[in-house]
Each structure stands twice: as structure tokens, then as C-alpha cells.
């Protein structure tokens, strides 16, 4: 969603604001802007479009202030245009905002009734005008505090003040906000990544908290405006993969990184010498776990659905999964022997974070499987299992998906062994097979040329279907999601066994249908479903781990992945689908790393 940056310095800040906004581009946005304080005047610059446009404006008309805020906007209220771009300013105050003020219409009506005029259609401008009004009788901190009490919904705010030219105030409720520290400079930012080029010393605001920073110091306040202290974290340096290197896009770089990221993840959890998995500090005694509920959104949900098959196969634990935006509104029956696991690459997804909050309020044990260990979801969980995939910039998740699957599989193995659902021989064999996964991934990725041929079939098609059974069904969902979000083509993932209950009507001459059929207990059944599709003219692209395609000439394309262990097939079967989506997007000249309408971290509902 939107990205925020604020800098209080002893030197002009606009260049660093621009550089930080470029770091936030991965979040997806449609306009950008900044405001600095120069000689007690708020100097606002905005553009609809990329940060480069804003940079050009600054070249023509430089802003020299030592205090400033910046923003990249992903429209939630009001169309993406110049007027609605952030910051939103009066002559007294300038504000940048990430989140949604749910009662903004009501507040806007109250202000308009007092004769106050609005320029934009945004909820953020309501905040600006409320603070401006409050400033008539209060200092900046109290003005912000009184304003926040009137707001419903989520926000991360950055605010500067005309008559207080040395401070920036930040506030957080529901949308993440980080504070960074440096010599003679301090910062606020939507995430640590925005601040990475300026500091590795970071604190995080929790919901309801505010911060007031100058170039020399930072103060924190709780939801009752009581001064508090915050821990200063030193960010990990290994997340240095912040440029594309020799790759054309972050997405293909991250696909190619997968053998290494999966190896790193396995090495973090598996003791190769002792052939054991180093997961110990369970929040619930493993033998007492009755049920595990896996919760996520999008790709993260697809990893949960895949893991369901592993837990059912290897453990005696009852397993349930849910989409976070559904889970959070259900009438739930909580049980202290249930373990609630939240899967999230960013660790900031609003629905997933809200679902976690509900569990915390019901005093049940929570675990998060995340890629960003400083994230909100990680910090609010009883237990964190990082996926160690390194920063994932491409909006379409690839290496994080494999990281999520790897950690879920490792957790499942560990629980199965501790609970004696599998014997030591099986446990050690499964660990040994897992260690072969990175090399098998590498062999899949090398087979890229075959995928490029497959891509042409899709680029000209009006739609497609992805079919699978068992743990290949969530891989079909994930493959369809990748194609949709990267190439804007309609694609549907479906359980192969369900085709005859309606979707078979979609099949017509030449429609591309991906059939995912590893040699498992579903293989023969999936082949029958495939024959039903062929009989109606569907064009089959067949993905399997069969040594040879024991199938007829009606297969338009075949892609074979290595076979290690049936349970590890999902990690391999997903690779050609990632590459397929990437190549179709290239053929259709789509913005691979920043697909339209999407954001890397969905921090609004
Ligand atoms: C992934 O390709 C998608 N862009 C999207 O579905 C993503 O998985 C979803 O928004 C959840 O994000 P999270 O893992 O950061 O919570």
C-alpha cells in the first residue's frame, strides 16, 4: 500500500526523501509527493505517476528544508491524481498517511459545516484539517493526540508543522511505522527497508503510539500520551539484495535465487550432522496440540492449503486452514490447545494482522511464519519461524512462497517426530530428502527454454485453467494466481475432480489447460480428468515428475520436474508455473515487478 518517509536533519532532506521513496516503490503506488519546511514555510511538491516525475520537479524547483516528509500513494480514497496525492497540507500543517480513516466522511461533514473547505477527495485531508484546527489551542503533540482520538480505522502518519520547524510527529494504528536513528538525523518510515540506506538502527511503534523526533533526539508516547522507551534494533545486514544485478526484473532474480534461499532456510532449521530439526521453544507442549489452524492471504494462503496435506499425511494433529479476511469475521470457538499459525511474507498484511489480534485477545497461542522478522505480525506473535528468503521485492511472491512451504514442511516433520506419529527412520529419511531439494529446484529453473515456448500459448489465449488433485490443487491455485497478477489474463485454479461439476463447460477448442500430475495416488484420476478436457479440444500443458510422459500425442507441452519424495513435489511443481507467468507477462509487456492495481504489502483491508 502507501509508503511514508520523514527526515529531521541538519542538512537539506529532499534528495534522501526521494531515495527512500524509490525504496518504497515496491509497495505499489500511483502518485508521489513530499513537503519540506523552508524559512517557516511548508513547501509541497507532488506528482501523479512515478517518483522520477517528482525528482524532475525538484530539479526544476529545489526544496532546501532540513525537515521533510514524503509519500508514495496507492489510492484508497479518491482517484489517483495530483490533487489526491500526498502530502495534504494547510499553511500550518503537512501530513502523509498510510491506511484508511473509516469515519472520514462523517468528520468531513462536521468540518464543512464549520465552513472549512476541502481540496481533495481523500480521507487524509480530514486529518490535516483536524490538526490545523486543534493547533489553534494546543501544541503540536496535543493537537495530534486530540485528532487521533476522533479517528476510526487504520493509519501511519507523518506530520510537520509550519511554526515548529524542528519536529516531525509520527503516529501508528494498524499500519506499520518505523523510526530510524543516525548522527544528526532521525527518521520515520513505513518499514525498515525505506530507512536501510540511511541507518540500521530501528525502533517500531506499536498500535496507539506516537513519536516526536528532531535531528538530535526521538521521544515516544503511549496511547495515553505518557512518555515511554522503545527498544532499538539493529537490522540484519544480509538483506542486501536490494538491486537487480544482472537480472532484468526482481521477479526473475528471486525465482533464480530459490535454490539458495531454500538451502539457507533448511540450514537454519536442520542440523545436518545430528540429522535433527532445531525447533524447540513451542508455545504449546507438542503432545498437547489438538488442532493447528493455518491462516494467510493470497500466496500465503496457498502455502497453508499445501501444508494441510502434509500435516494430514504425517501427523495425528487436526488441521484447519482459513483465509485471513474470512477468519477474522467468523464466530470462532477458541481452544487453548489449538495453535494458530499466521503465514505472511511481509508480516504486515492487514487482514492477517487483524486475525492474529483476535487470537491474542482470546488468549490462545500464536505462531507466525514470516520473511520480515521485524514486522508487526512477527512482533505480535508468541512464536516466530522466519523463512530466511531475503528481501522479496517483486510483488508476485516466488521465493517467499517456497520459503513458507519449506518452513511449514520442516515444522510438520518436527511435530510428527516429537509426537511419535513417524518413527526415527522415517524422520531421518525425510530430512535427507529435504536436503536434496535445493539442487532439484536448480534443475527445474535451468529448464526455462521449454517454458518460454509454453508461454506463447497463453499470451494469445483469452483465459486458462490450472488443474490438480491433493497437494497439487493449491499449486494449481498458486499457478493461476501468478498468471493473473502478472499478465492480467483470466486464469482459474481448480480441483481436477471438480471439472465435471460445471467448469468443463468452459473447455473449448484451443483453451490452454495446465494439468499438474505428479506420480502420486491421484495420478490415474487426474489423467482421466485430463482426457475429458482433451476430448473437448483443450490444449494440455502437462506438468509431472514422471520419468517419461506415458501419455498420448494430445499433450501440447510437457514439463518434467525431478522426483525426490511425493511430499516435496509441490515445491518443484510450482517452479514452471512461476516461470510461465513471468514469460507470459514479458510477452504482454506487463510491469513484472509492479503489476497494476497491486501492492507488495496489503496494509489496508
Ligand atoms: C503474492 O503473489 C500476492 N502478491 C499476494 O497474494 C500476497 O501473497 C498476499 O497479499 C499476502 O501477502 P503477505 O504474504 O505479505 O501477507
What this model shows, in words?
The chain has 3 domains: 3-234, Aminohydrolase, N-terminal nucleophile (Ntn) domain (Glutamine Phosphoribosylpyrophosphate, subunit 1, domain 1, 4-Layer Sandwich); 239-435, Rossmann fold; 446-591, Glucose-6-phosphate isomerase like protein, domain 1 (Rossmann fold), CATH 3.40.50.10490. The protein is built from 19 helices and 27 strands. The N and C termini lie close together (10 Å). The mean pLDDT is 91. With 605 residues, the chain is of the alpha/beta class. Bound molecules: 2-deoxy-2-amino glucitol-6-phosphate (AGP). The site of 2-deoxy-2-amino glucitol-6-phosphate has 16 residues, from helix 9.
Sum this structure up briefly.
This protein is α/β, with parallel strands linked by helices and 605 residues long. Helices cover 35% and strands 23% of the residues. The protein folds into 3 domains: 3-234, 4-Layer Sandwich (Glutamine Phosphoribosylpyrophosphate, subunit 1, domain 1); 239-435, Rossmann fold (3-Layer(aba) Sandwich); 446-591, 3-Layer(aba) Sandwich (Rossmann fold), CATH 3.40.50.10490.
Q: Give the total of beta strands.
A: 27
**DSSP helical segment count:** 19
End-to-end distance, in Å?
A: 10 Å
Runs with pLDDT <50, length 5+? Answer: none
The fold-level CATH name of the largest domain is Glutamine Phosphoribosylpyrophosphate, subunit 1, domain 1
List the helices and strands and how they pair.
Layout: E1 3-9, H1 14-23, E2 31-38, E3 41-48, H2 51-60, E4 67-73, E5 88-89, E6 93-98, H3 104-113, H4 124-134, H5 140-150, E7 155-161, E8 164-173, E9 178-182, E10 185-189, H6 192-195, E11 201-204, E12 210-213, E13 218-221, E14 227-228, E15 233-234, H7 250-256, H8 258-269, E16 270-271, E17 276-277, E18 291-296, H9 298-314, E19 318-323, H10 324-327, E20 338-344, H11 350-361, E21 365-370, H12 376-379, E22 383-384, H13 399-418, H14 424-434, H15 437-446, H16 448-459, E23 464-468, H17 472-487, E24 491-495, E25 512-516, H18 523-534, E26 539-544, E27 555-560, H19 569-587
Bound molecules: 2-deoxy-2-amino glucitol-6-phosphate (AGP).
2-deoxy-2-amino glucitol-6-phosphate binds at residues 297-300, 344-346, 349, 352, 395-397, 485, 598, 601-602.
Amino acid at each position: 500500500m502507501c509508503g511514508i518517509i520523514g527526515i529531521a536533519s541538519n542538512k537539506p532532506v529532499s534528495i534522501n526523501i526521494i531515495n527512500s521513496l524509490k525504496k518504497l516503490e515496491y509497495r505499489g503506488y500511483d502518485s508521489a509527493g513530499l513537503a519540506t519546511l523552508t524559512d517557516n514555510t511548508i513547501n509541497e511538491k507532488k506528482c501523479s505517476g512515478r517518483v522520477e516525475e517528482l525528482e524532475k520537479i525538484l530539479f526544476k524547483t529545489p526544496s532546501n528544508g532540513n525537515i521533510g516528509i514524503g509519500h508514495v500513494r496507492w489510492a484508497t480514497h479518491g482517484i489517483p491524481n495530483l490533487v489526491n496525492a500526498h502530502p495534504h497540507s494547510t499553511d500550518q500543517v503537512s501530513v502523509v498517511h498510510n491506511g484508511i480513516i473509516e469515519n472520514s466522511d462523517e468528520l468531513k461533514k462536521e468540518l464543512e459545516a464549520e465552513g472549512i473547505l476541502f481540496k481533495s477527495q481523500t480521507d487524509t485531508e480530514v486529518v490535516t484539517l483536524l490538526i490545523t484546527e486543534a493547533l489553534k489551542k494546543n501544541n503540536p503533540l496535543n493537537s495530534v493526540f486530540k485528532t487521533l482520538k476522533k479517528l476510526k480505522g487504520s493509519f501511519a502518519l507523518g506530520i510537520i508543522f509550519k511554526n515548529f520547524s524542528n519536529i516531525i510527529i509520527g503516529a501508528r494504528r494498524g499500519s506499520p511505522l518505523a523510526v530510524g536513528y543516525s548522527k544528526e538525523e532521525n527518521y520515520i518510515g513505513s518499514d525498515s527497508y525505506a530507512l536501510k540506506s540511511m541507518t540500521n538502527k530501528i525502533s517500531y511503534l506499536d498500535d496507539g503510539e506516537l513519536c516526536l523526533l528532531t535531528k538530535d533526539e526521538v521521544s515516544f508516547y503511549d496511547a495515553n500520551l505518557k512518555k515511554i522507551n522503545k527498544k532499538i534494533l539493529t537490522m540484519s545486514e544480509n538483506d542486501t539484495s536490494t538491486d537487480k544485478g544482472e537480472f532484468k526484473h526482481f521477479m526473475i532474480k528471486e525465482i533464480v535465487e530459490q535454490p539458495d534461499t531454500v538451502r539457507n532456510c533448511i540450514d537454519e532449521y536442520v542440523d545436518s550432522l545430528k540429522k535433527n530439526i532445531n525447533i524447540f521453544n513451542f508455545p504449546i507442549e507438542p503432545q498437547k496440540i489438538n488442532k493447528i489452524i493455518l491462516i494467510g492471504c493470497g500466496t500465503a494462503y496457498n502455502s497453508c492449503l499445501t501444508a494441510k496435506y502434509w500435516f494430514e499425511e504425517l501427523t495425528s494433529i487436526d488441521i484447519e486452514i482459513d483465509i485471513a479476511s474470512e477468519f477474522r469475521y467468523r464466530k470462532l470457538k477458541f481452544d487453548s490447545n489449538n495453535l494458530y499459525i499466521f503465514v505472511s511474507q511481509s508480516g504486515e498484511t492487514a487482514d492477517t494482522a487483524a486475525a492474529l489480534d483476535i487470537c491474542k485477545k482470546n488468549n490462545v497461542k500464536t505462531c507466525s511464519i514470516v520473511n520480515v522478522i521485524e514486522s508487526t505480525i512477527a512482533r505480535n506473535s508468541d512464536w516466530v519461524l522466519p523463512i530466511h528468503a531475503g528481501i522479496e521485492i517483486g510483488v508476485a511472491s516466488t521465493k517467499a512462497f517456497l520459503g513458507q512451504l519449506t518452513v511449514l514442511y520442516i515444522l510438520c516433520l518436527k511435530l510428527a517426530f516429537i509426537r511419535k506419529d513417524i518413527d526415527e527412520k522415517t524422520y531421518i529419511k525425510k530430512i535427507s530428502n529435504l536436503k536434496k531439494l535445493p539442487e532439484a529446484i536448480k534443475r527445474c529453473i535451468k529448464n526455462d527454454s521449454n517454458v518460454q515456448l509454453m508461454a506463447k500459448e497463453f499470451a494469445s489465449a483469452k483465459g486458462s485453467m490450472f488443474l490438480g488433485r491433493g497437494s497439487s490443487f493449491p499449486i494449481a491455485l498458486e499457478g493461476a494466481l501468478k498468471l493473473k497478477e502478472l499478465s492480467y489474463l483470466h486464469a482459474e485454479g481448480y480441483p481436477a475432480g471438480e471439472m465435471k461439476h460445471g467448469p468443463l463447460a468452459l473447455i473449448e477448442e484451443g483453451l490452454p489447460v495446465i494439468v499438474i500430475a505428479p506420480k502420486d495416488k491421484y495420478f490415474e484420476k487426474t489423467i482421466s480428468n485430463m482426457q475429458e478436457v482433451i476430448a473437448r479440444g483443450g490444449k494440455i500443458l502437462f506438468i509431472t515428475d514422471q520419468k517419461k510422459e506415458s501419455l498420448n500425442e494430445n499433450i501440447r507441452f510437457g514439463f518434467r520436474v525431478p522426483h525426490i519424495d511425493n511430499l516435496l513435489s509441490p515445491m518443484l511443481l510450482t517452479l514452471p508455473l512461476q516461470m510461465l507467468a513471468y514469460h507470459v507477462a514479458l510477452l504482454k509487456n506487463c510491469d513484472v515487478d509492479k503489476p497494476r492495481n497491486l501492492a507488495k504489502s496489503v496494509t489496508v483491508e
